[in-house]
Design a protein that fits this description.
The chain has about 220 residues and is mainly α. The protein has 13 helices and two strands; from the N terminus they run αααββαααααααααα. It has a two-stranded antiparallel sheet.
């Protein structure tokens, strides 16, 4: 019974570690239980460094068995990974839990790093999983869409998203968000070798940024 409960409680995890399992179970004995599973060869594959993964077919069976508990478990997992700075796993679990506000906030925090790392498909998949209403309320997410379109040379779409981000930011009194959206528009014009179009946008972005520093 103890192992059966452990299997159900950890079914939402893609990768099993003692720390993640403990967080979901509010217990401190997961390392020992994982070792028992390994010794008995109970549907786990060892990945090294104390990490395990359920065999895919068995994992799907476990997820079906634990479906009623899944939203709460996903929330616990999201909080665990967020605290460890693992934004990708945290976002995956927030989305799976249906916690869209938390997921959107996490994408806002993680988006810049994803762009810098060239993880465009990952960022696009996060944003695609959010409803349009969540995007409209978060200018930074609209700006990320503009960045994604620019980096894929879809310049008209990029300008449209950044313009929407600017309007949404101004409506909310978000000077930093408006400045970022203006810089995004300017980058689109610079990519198209239209520096004259970019100049006024950059000047306005700097004006807004200077205002922030003065506060």
């Amino acid at each position: 019974p103890e192992l059966a409960a452990f299997l159900r409680e950890t079914a939402v995890l893609r990768e099993l570690t003692p720390e993640a399992c403990d967080a979901l179970r509010a217990r401190a004995d997961s390392a020992a239980l994982l070792e028992r599973l390994r010794e008995r060869d109970l549907f786990v594959a060892e990945l090294g460094d104390g990490h395990f993964r359920y065999h895919p077919v068995f994992h799907e069976f476990l997820r079906q068995q634990a479906a009623a508990e899944a939203p709460a478990r996903h929330r616990l997992a999201a909080a665990h990974f967020a605290a460890r700075g693992d934004d990708a796993e945290a976002i995956r679990h927030w989305l799976a839990a249906g916690a869209l506000a938390e997921a959107a906030a996490a994408v806002e925090r993680a988006g810049e790093a994803a762009l810098r790392a060239g993880r465009l498909d990952t960022l696009a998949s996060w944003i695609d999983a959010l409803p349009p209403a969540a995007l409209a309320q978060r200018p930074r997410l609209l700006a990320y869409l503009g960045d994604l379109c620019r980096l894929r040379s879809r310049f008209d779409e990029a300008l449209s998203w950044h313009a929407q981000a600017e309007r949404a930011a101004r409506e909310r009194g978000d000077r930093a968000g408006a400045s970022r959206a203006l810089r995004g528009q300017a980058l689109v014009y610079l990519d198209q070798v239209q520096p004259a179009q970019a100049e006024s946008l950059l000047q306005e972005a700097l004006r807004l940024s200077d205002g922030l520093h003065d506060q």
